[in-house]
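Chapter summary example.
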Amino acid sequence: MMVRMGFAEGWRRWIRACVFQSTMSVLVNGSTTEDFNVSKGLRQGDPLSPFLFLIVAEGLTGLMNKAMDNSLFQGYKVSNNISFHTLQFADDTIIVGEDSWDNLWSIKIVLRSFELVSGLKVNFYKSKLYGINLDDSFLRAASSFLNCGVESIPFRFLGIPVGANLRRRATWLHILELMKKRLSAWNGLHLSIGGRVTLINS
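The structure predicted for these 202 residues follows.
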């Protein structure tokens, strides 16, 4: 994957060394064990972990692109020339497409292939199926086929309401309350202009 993304040999060698040639010890009852070689995975809290996950997740997008290119999956058409199928942020993924059994089969095959290639496991218990103007019987059959739950629109993605009327004040009340709670902790502090800018940017 890193070769296809254009990473030079030096970078790939460094990453390989970090993942496969590192050692670690475990804290047991306040005492550390002897170091042992790590054969799989990264240490908990390893700063390299999110970056490696993004590289691996790019593989899922690549598989979906292949399915689109080979007309195995029909994404959502924005216009005659523009369509999309996958939205990703960190470990959250939304797959968007037309309501057809061909699409459902493609999703199942792509996700299974991704699991086999990457070694990651898709959590279907946390996965949800959403339908816009779809028959309930199709949604139930599709959720049973994909082994996931059915939810209704609007729903929240990364804290933002999707499918809700964005012009209504009630849509944004939840987000405004969260922002007020976060800012209230900083209210009593006398921040400089630089401190305020840092707070806003975070």
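To summarize the output: The first strand starts at residue 23 and ends at 24.
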